[in-house]
Amino acid sequence: MTFVPYDRPVRAAFVGLGRIYDLNVRGYIDNPDVEVVALVDPNEERRAQRQADWPGAATFASAAELAASGLQVDTVEVLLPIVLHADAVAELLDFGWHVNLQKPMCNSLAEAQRMLDAATANDRILRVMDNYLFYEPLHRLKAVAESGDIGNVVGYHMKMVGTGNGGWDVPWSSFEWQIDQMKRGRGIMVFDDGWHKLTTAIWLFGPIREVRAWIGNLAVGPGIDLETPATLMWEHENGIRGVWDITIAMDMYLRSDYYTNDERWEITGSKGFARVNRCTGRGIQQPSLEIYADGEMRSYHALDDDWGSSFRDSGRYWLRWLHAGDGPLLWSGQEAVDVLRFALAAYESSAKGGIGVDPALLT
Ligand SMILES: NC(=O)c1ccc[n+]([C@@H]2O[C@H](COP(=O)([O-])OP(=O)(O)OC[C@H]3O[C@@H](n4cnc5c(N)ncnc54)[C@H](O)[C@@H]3O)[C@@H](O)[C@H]2O)c1
What pLDDT digit, counting tens, does each position of 13-49 carry? Predict the structure, then answer.
């Protein structure tokens, strides 16, 4: 890879202007590192709606039309339904543009390889963004785990509860393609939203050597199958074990500015613990990070624990990265493949009765 950093603002296009654009755009607003030159979506209404944010940007119904227009673009922010990721990303890389792709990367290892090959063939960067890696309480959690303040890490768990009430509106069109994903065995809990949890696990404690899972099914409507209750367990190569439990509390109201997802991370150390109390929603309205050690509890009351800020910071990091070109991408295409392997290992384990699966051995 012979990446040449830019010495000017990068020219960017958004491809996909749906629900999550509302948060991804935060990295681009008032950012001198970028000039938004184009907006792409087949939906005319969406184009008109988003044009208000970027009156100077040209709009197109497809990326092919943008490429044919001759407008100069350096990088694209890809916010498409998952099933389109592989074809679209390969096409965009072929146009000679760097790609910042929303998670999950794609549905299969073959699709992932196609995308990595396209990046290599075109000498372009493929980043798979994960905003959770930019959520300040999780950053602090990682720092605490590495600092020794709670002793040696002896294990950790994550919890995720999807609730039926509260949060922002999600248009039916944004949900429709998720239902297709469910039919492909890539559900919204373990695969789509779960991708973040699996990413944080690898980011916190490194490569995974074994995964065991018991993934249930809750049918909430025709063709709408939620992968709960689910329990995933794994062991990192360094011997640390993690557990993640997923449930649905259908009638629970959860205060949230975004999706109704109540989440926690808790790391146990040999002399204390550190816990992130919430992320997407505002379930536990206590300090978002608490650290206990040596008989004392430290509570963090002033972190930027608005989940939306993690999108802003992830986007800014990427647009700055294009000027520097070194340091971790948070997250590279290859690292995203490790997350995909983690998810696929969980599905395989569950299908086989919960046996241990080494993600590296999946083909
Ligand atoms: N990081 C997160 O927490 C988070 C949260 C929600 C969604 N996502 C991810 O973001 C992506 C988009 O999700 P969403 O909820 O915004 O979906 P959405 O359905 O609301 O938006 C997708 C948009 O893509 C457009 N589109 C479809 N085909 C297109 C094409 N060929 N070219 C250009 N545009 C096209 C649609 O018209 C729509 O406006 C998915 O990968 C999803 O998993 C991530």
Answer: 999 999 999 999 999 999 999 999 999 999 999 999 9
- Cα dihedral 83, 312, 59, 86 in deg (nearest 10): -20
Cα distance between residue 228 and residue 216, in whole Å:
5
Cα 130 to averaged position of ligand 1 atoms, centre (Å): 14
- Mean pLDDT over residues 218-242, rounded? 96
| CB-based contact 145:272 (threshold 8 Å) | no
What global pTM score does this model have? 0.97
Indicate if the pLDDT at residue 2 is higher than 80: no
Q: Are 245 and 159 in contact (CB under 8 A)?
A: yes
**For the chain, what's the residue count?**
363
Cβ-contact 325, 343 below 8 angstroms:
no
Confirm if 61 and 42 have CB atoms less than 8 A apart. Answer: yes
**How far is Cα 66 from Cα 62, in angstroms, rounded to an integer?**
7
Determine how many CB atoms are found less than 10 A away from the CB of residue 91.
Answer: 17
Report residue 1's pLDDT band, with 50, 70 and 90 as the boundaries: low
Q: What is the mean pLDDT of the chain?
A: 97
* Eight-class DSSP state of 108: S
Q: Tell the residue nearest (CA) to atom 24 of ligand 1.
A: 16
Q: What 3-state class would DSSP assign to 87? A: helix
CB atoms within 10 A of CB 209: 15
Tell me the two tokens of residue 10: 């990068």
Q: Which residues line ligand 1 (CB under 6 A)?
A: 15-20, 40-43, 46, 62-63, 79-82, 84, 102-103, 131, 173-174, 192
DSSP state letters, 246-277: EEEEEEEE---SS--EEEEEEEEETTEEEEE-
Q: What's the pLDDT tens digit per position in 150-199?
A: 999 999 999 999 999 999 999 999 999 999 999 999 999 999 999 999 99
- How far apart (Å, rounded) are the C-alpha atoms in residues 77 and 315? 9
